[in-house]
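Hi Prof. W.,

I finally got the Nuclear pore complex protein GP210 Ig-like domain-containing protein prediction working! I wasn't sure whether to trim anything, so I left the full sequence exactly as given:
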Amino acid sequence: MQNANAIDGSKIRTGESNAIDCIQAKDHSTGRTEIASCLRVAEVAQVRVAASESSIQTAYLSVNDKVELDVKYADELGYTFSEALGVAPVKIETNYPDVLSIVMPRDVNGTYGTHQRFVLQARSHGTALVRLHINHPSRKSDFIMVSVGARMYPRDVVIHSGQHLNFTIIGDRMDARGPGQWLSTNEKVMHVNQITGEAHARGEGIAEVIFKGPNLKLRTTVNVLKVNQIVVDAPAEILTNAAAPPDGYKFSVKLSDSAGHSTESSVNQINAPFDCKVEPSFVGFVEPWSDRAGKKSYCVFHPYSPAQLLPVKSNPKDGILHISVCANLKEDSMVTGSAHALFVKGFYIKEPGMLNLTPSCNHSIITIGGNTARC
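And this is what came out:
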């Protein structure tokens, strides 16, 4: 390293700002010397708001709710420092203190302003702007918009035709907002139940979903895309009806439009907009299922047990069979997708209970049933 920075044991002592130095490392086994790392020295020029390690621009709170945010220090170019802890006093202010209050934790010595964290507390309904900045010639600031009160969920939805989802109001008590009704600006695109908020995407296009109450009016935009493709993926494991999973085998189903936009995790839909079937049909049954927590859709295959398959007349080779699971769109049966999987048939022992063997009778006959050529 050059004179601007110096290595002090296991630490690096920085020198002048805007200096760039590189650290050389020597391999004792080969004697080669190479650049191990480079160091750029810069000064703190601005601050950023961060929550959960990612910057945010908008926050939604209910009255009396609190949110704890972090302050990240950055240089002139916006690169954040990982170890700049309270190096400069931060000024945080809001244009509507009656809507939102700012709480700065005290430092050890009882002063304010150099902490890495601050708290926003909602006081009343409304929208407030929060500004963070430090005393620096660049005069750069970071902002966060805070909305206090009721809000619609989900917002700015992208959904495929045929899907259903529930709209709801969160961030406020029911008695505070009163009763209301749901509306759609285009029923051909999105139909909404006026009382429950359950919505059905009917056709391609854009519509607004509106909630009207005595004291508020909320709206959001819904973009309904036409499904042009269904992609079905088989599970990685080999399928069998011997000790099959109690919840069945999950074939993932993804819907996409002509541009390739997928709804795998876009909305929390309440039902699957497709039907499922399995071929050959005698091996079991399949049903559509939407994982509302994971926001994914599946065709779930439930194989029949070996005893149930016993009467079936088939000619599998060595008890192995290839099955196909197909998904087709309810709104348009021509839009389909399928996946193939290997299915190994199992067998079962007909005699229930335990085998009792004695020294004088140490053998027994076991009857095995099942649609397999090998045991």
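Residues 6-40 form one domain. Does that look reasonable to you?

Thanks,
D.
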